[in-house]
Amino acid sequence: MKKKQWIAFACAMALGVTSLAGCGKSEENTQKKAVGEAEGTAKEDLPLSKYPETVTVHLGGSMNSNAKIPDGMSYDDNSYTRLLKEDLNIEVAYDWVASSTDYDEKMNLCIGSNTIPELMNVNATQYRALLKYDMIQPLDQYFDDYASDALKAYVESGGEELKKCISNDKGEIMAIPAPSMMGGEVNEMWIRQDWLDNLGLEVPRTWDEMAAVAEAFVTQDPDGNGEADTIGILGPSNSDHMNAIGANQFGLDPLFSSFQSYPQYWLQDEDGTVEYGSIQPETREALEKISKLYTNKLIDPEMLVRSDSKEPLLSGKVGIFFGPWWSGYTVSDTTLAGEADWRAYFTPLSEDGNYYAHMPNPTSKYVVASKSCKNPEAAFKIVNYLIKNEQQWVVDGITSTEMGTADFYPLYNGYDNADEIEVSTETLEKYLAGEITMDDVDFSKHKLLKNDMEAVKELKKEPYDDFSLDKWNLDSDIAKTNLPRLVSLLVGGSPLVNDKYVPVYNAYNGQTKTMEAKWANLKKMEEETFSKIIMGKADISEFDTFVENWKNQGGDQILKEINDELSK
C-alpha cells in the first residue's frame, strides 16, 4: 500500500485548533445542574466553586513506592487532599491504592469485574475498554460550565485529533485529557556541527547526503585524535527499540519515515481501510536501504548489542543520532563542558522533499467518570485546582521533594499545551530578536516560559541566532540548571518552528480480542526479523516470509477486527 501524499497532508489539516466548548450538547444540557452545587453560583465561578456541603468522590490511587510521606500525613490525607477539602469541600476517598507499577493491572481487574471507582485516571487501552463496555458517562454536559479557561485552552490546543480521542461515536466528550506535547515525540537528526566544520562539510538534508557525511565521520577522523574510533550514526541499544509509537530516542524512525514507512502504526488508506505499517512495501524498501548503511559501517556496529547508547554519545564518539527536541538535555554534559556542538534538523528528507514525522497519540492520559458517579463535575474542579495552583505551591513550599504533586495529588496528570514546545521556542526567538518583551507574554498559560526568558538573556551571547558553543555563556552560575533546556528549545525546537513537516497519525489505539492473545508474539517476531535484516543476519527476502507469517498467525484477523470496529 503506497502511502498517498494526500493522506499525510489530511493529517496535517487535523492540527487546526477546534473549540471543544462548541462541540457538546445544546445550551440546556450544558447548563445541567450538578448534584450538591450551590444555588445561584455564577457560571464563571463554577470551575472552582466550593460545594455548600461536603462532596465525597471515590478514586483508585497510584502510589510511588519511593515517595516520602511527611510526618503527620498519609497518601489519602496530605496537603493536597486537605486543600481540596478546605477550598472546594471535596473529600477524596480511595477505594484502593496500588503501587505505581501495579496500578494498571489493578485498574484492568476493576474494569474486568465492573468494580471501577467513581473517578479515575486510565490509559488509552483502558479508556477504549471502558467505552466499549459502556462503563463511563459523557462529560460534555459539564465541559462548558466546569472546565476552567486554562483547561479548555489545553484541550483545544490538541485540535481535531485530540477531540477524536476523547469523543464517542455520538460525538460526546467522554474524558478529560492531558494533551501530549505533539512536538515532543517528533524525532530529528542531531549532528555534530564542530565535526562538520572540521571536515569542511555542509549539513546533510537528503538520504545520500546523510550517508556521505556519516561515511566521512567514520573514515576522516573528525575529532582529530588520529584514531579510527568514531561512529557515524548511533543506533538503539539492546534495551531500546528500532521503531516505536511516539518518543524513541536513538531509534531509526526517521530513516524509515523518509520512505514513508511507519512500522508499528496502523495507517488509514484512501478508502478508509486500516493497514499495518510494518508489513507495507515501503517498509521492505526502508529495511533494505538501512541494511546497506549498517553493512558499510555507517551505523553503529554495536547497535542493539551495546547496553547503553549514551556511553559513546557522551564520550564524544558519535556524529549523528536521532531524537526529539529534548535531546539537548541528553547531551547537556558535553555542551556545558564545551566539548560538542550539537544541532538539530529534519533529515533525511523523502524523495518528494518532505519530512514525514509519525506523531504521538494526542493523549495517553484520560480522567473519566463511572456511570454511577453522582458528581462528575468534581473531576473538572480537581483538575482546575491543580492547574491554577501547581506553580504557586512550589513557591509556597507546599510542593517539595517530599510532597510532589505527581506523587500525591488526586487524579494527577501533567497539563500543558499540545504546542507548548513550538510556542516556547518561537517566543524565545522573538524575545532574543527584540520583537517582543516579557510584558507581551501571558505566563499563566506557560509554566516554564518566564524562567526561560529571564535566563536566556544571561546565557545567550550575540548574535542571538548563532548557537555555536562560544556564543553561550557556559561559565554562568545558572548554566548548569538552565542551559540544557534552552539548548533543547532553541536548537532542538528550531526545526519544529522554522521547518515544515508532514504529520502522520496512528489510526488505531485500542486492543482487539485477537491482539490480547497474539500481539506479544507478533511484535516479537517483527522486532527480531527487522533486526536480523538490518544487521545482515537475514536476506531482505526474509521480510516477505515475515509478512506471510504475520498475516497467518493472527495479523489478518486483527486487521479485520480493527476495521470492523472502526466501521461501526
Structure explained in plain terms:
This protein is α/β, with parallel strands linked by helices and 568 residues long. The protein folds into three domains: 21-181 and 362-408, D-Maltodextrin-Binding Protein, domain 2, CATH 3.40.190.10; 185-359 and 505-567, Periplasmic binding protein-like II (D-Maltodextrin-Binding Protein, domain 2); 420-499. Helix content is 41%, strand content 11%. The protein is built from 23 helices and 13 strands. It has a four-stranded mixed sheet. A three-stranded antiparallel sheet has the order 3-12-4. 43% of the residues are buried. Residues 1-32 have low confidence and may be disordered. Keywords: Cell membrane, Lipoprotein, Membrane, Palmitate, Signal.
Residue runs with pLDDT of under 50 for 5 or more positions: 1-32
Helix content: 40-55%
Task: Outline the biggest β-sheet.
Answer: 4 strands, mixed
Structural shape: globular
Structural class: alpha/beta
Q: How confident is the prediction overall: mean pLDDT?
A: 91
Helical stretch count? Answer: 23
**What is the CATH superfamily label of the largest domain?**
Periplasmic binding protein-like II
Radius of gyration: 25 Å
Protein name: Extracellular solute-binding protein
Signal peptide: 1-21
Organism: Agathobacter rectalis
Pfam family, one: SBP_bac_1
